[in-house]
C-alpha cells in the first residue's frame, strides 16, 4: 500500500464515525500484537468527538487492551481544567472515562487554572513529549494521530496565514490569536504531527468540501494547513459525501 493520501467516503457523519471507530479498534489490536504499546493523538472538534463516542459504543471496544494504550492531544483550548470546551474534558466524557486506561497513560495539556501561563504550558508539553520518546529519539512513536479539519483548512490549532502554522523549530506552540474560539490555544507543530505513523483526518459537512478539495489539489500548506499534513506511513481522509464534493474522482478510494 502506498503512502499516498487516501480518501474514504461515507454516507454521512454517523456512518463515518462508526467506520472510523471500527477501523481504530482493529488497527489498535493489530498494533498491540506487534508492539508493547500503542500511542494515539486525539483531536478536538465535533467529528473527532463523535468517533470517540462510537468507539465507546462499539461492542468490540474491549478487544483493545487499553492498559497498553497512551493518549496525547494534538491541541487544546486554553480554558480551565473542567471547562466543557476543553478537548480533554470532551474526550473523557466521550471515551476515556469509560475504558480501563490507566490514569498515567493519559497525557493532557495543562489547563489555564493550573498555575502556569500559556507559554509555560507549551514548554511543559514539549518536554513531556520529549521525555516520552525512546532513548536517542526526539519524539515518541505516534501510531495514530486523529485530526479534525476546519472549513478554513486548519488542523489542530494551526490556522491559515498564521506564522505559527509554519513554525517547525518547536514541538508545541502557544497560539494567541485563534480565529476559532477560544483565541488562546496550545498545538503540536506540523513536524510533530507529520512524525506520526498514521494520520487519520475526520471531516464531515458541506463547509469542509472546499478546504479538502484545495488541499488535495496542491494548495499551499500555509494557506490551507491540512495540505501540509502527511503521516510517515498512512494519511487517510475519512469524509462524508458532502465534504467529498470537490475531491477529484481519481483520489476517492473504492468503497467496499
Ligand atoms: O480544538 C479544536 O477545535 C480542534 O482540534 C479543531 O482543530 C477541530 O478539529 C476542527 O476545528 C474541526 O472541528 P469540527 O470537527 O467540529 O468541524
TrEMBL record:
Gene3D superfamilies: 3.40.50.1360. It comes from the Bacteria. It catalyses: 6-phospho-D-glucono-1,5-lactone + H2O = 6-phospho-D-gluconate + H(+). InterPro entries: 6-phosphogluconolactonase_DevB (IPR005900), 6PGL (IPR039104), Glc/Gal-6P_isomerase (IPR006148), NagB/RpiA_transferase-like (IPR037171). It is an enzyme of class 3 (hydrolase). Its EC number is 3.1.1.31. SUPFAM superfamilies: NagB/RpiA/CoA transferase-like. Keywords: Hydrolase. Residues 12-235 form the Glucosamine/galactosamine-6-phosphate isomerase domain. GO terms for biological process: carbohydrate metabolic process; pentose-phosphate shunt. Pathway: Carbohydrate degradation; pentose phosphate pathway; D-ribulose 5-phosphate from D-glucose 6-phosphate (oxidative stage): step 2/3. GO terms for molecular function: 6-phosphogluconolactonase activity. Pfam families: Glucosamine_iso. Belongs to the glucosamine/galactosamine-6-phosphate isomerase family. 6-phosphogluconolactonase subfamily. Hydrolysis of 6-phosphogluconolactone to 6-phosphogluconate. This is 6-phosphogluconolactonase. The gene is pgl.
